[in-house]
Amino acid sequence: MGKRLVILGGGESGVGAALLGKKEGYEVVLMDESSLKDVYRNELQKAGIDFLEKEINKERLFSADEVVKSPGIPEKNEWVKALRQKGIAIISEIELAYRHKGNSRIVAITGSNGKSTTTSLIYHICMHAGLDCALVGNIGYSFARQVAEDPKQWYVAEISSFQLDDILTFRPDIAVLLNITEDHLDRYDYQFEKYIRSKFRITINQQPSDHFIYNLDDEVIKNYIERNKINSIQLPISMKQKVEKGGYIKDDQMHVNVSGDEQQMSIYDFALKGKHNQFNTMAASVAGATMDIRKNKIREAVQTFENLEHRMESVATVRGVEFINDSKATNVNSTWYALESMTKPTILVLGGVDKGNDYTLITELVKEKVKAIVCMGLDNKKIHEAFDDVVKVVDTDNASDAVRSSYSLAQPGDIVLLSPACASFDLFKNYEDRGRQFKDAVRDL
């Protein structure tokens, strides 16, 4: 008999893990306390994989040799607690994928903000250079599914702290840590230090031949590195100081140096605009140089990259009012970056499920740049408490009301920015659904 593998959670990562487990000869059963999406149910049936929906079978769960837990399931879940008590190993889907990736190599990107943009840009650089690669993790297919169905030489993986929490041997050849700000603290007992340690798990198994690209200007990251040993080759990136190896920006010029052959490029040639995107572009360029991609290929890729949907995405200009969809901003820091790049008077659309937000982070920018705030959530109390004395705050409870209210508050030359600083689950399926409903409402104006 094969090793008994139970998959907890039937989303993209769970189904990917089930497909890989089956392919590798495990005895697999997938369980989910909710009902599965039709597409996933059909896939499991077609692959002949045993699954249970709307129930967890205690006996089968506890007879597992190993359990792959969906990143969405918290430690405080009763089944997870019971498994821990019984000493049954719990791993994440990226750990399972890592074990079966063969000789392939991994670039893994994490951080509180900018992950998807940087991951996509690194993937774009790799594709432009003709590498055999796939975009996996929190973006695109799950890592396990890609390994099972279409293995590649390189995997460019966006990795969350939740995925890193349950790794044992997962080891990226190149790890990228963009920034660490207070996010998801509800999952880490409201202890920032636990969240920081979780992010740094991306380096935990790295060897002296691996590379670690990190933001030297981030005090949290810098302090952690000063106190803890990192085994891999360190490649810092900075906008404040010159670095020997890694990347830095000085006088609007980006300098990248990994192996003694420096590359320079004007920031005005970057396809991505805004200060935070200069960091993302620098991280991606250093990663490309680490992979021995030619300088001209990195330059061309950085100039031709197109921004992601739901990330500072220009939707339309309606009678002089520009609408921007930044639905992917699910925490206050993301919204800070969005506001920081605004150059015109802004109507800000905020709200959703609050993950312990501290709105004082954006108070100064709101005073400086925002004409009015339009709330789009079921519970907007905290937003009112933070901003009622600063600007006009209006309540709405769906995307089209939010768009109409914003439009009525705006004048030609203004920007309406959807950058919610919150998760979307109170009114929408996810941030993509929120972004699409916002865009549809703008087109209906």
Description:
There is one protein chain. With 445 residues, the chain is an alpha/beta fold. The protein folds into three domains: 4-91, NAD(P)-binding Rossmann-like Domain (Rossmann fold, 3-Layer(aba) Sandwich), CATH 3.40.50; 101-304, UDP-N-acetylmuramoyl-L-alanine:D-glutamate ligase; 313-443, Mur ligase, C-terminal domain (Protein-Tyrosine Phosphatase, Chain A), CATH 3.90.190. The protein is 36% helix and 22% strand. The chain has 17 helices and 20 strands. The protein has helices spanning 12-23, 38-47, 58-62, 78-86, 93-99, 115-128, 143-149, 161-164, 192-200, 219-227, 275-290, 295-304, 332-340, 360-369, 381-387, 399-409, 431-443, and strands at 4-8, 27-32, 50-53, 66-69, 89-91, 105-110, 133-137, 154-158, 174-177, 211-215, 233-238, 246-250, 253-257, 263-266, 313-318, 321-325, 346-350, 370-376, 392-396, 415-418. A hairpin with a 5-residue loop joins β13 (253-257) and β14. α1 (12-23) packs parallel to α5, α6 (115-128) crosses α11 (275-290) and α6 (115-128) packs across α12. The protein is globular. The model has no long low-confidence stretch (mean pLDDT 92). Belongs to the MurCDEF family.
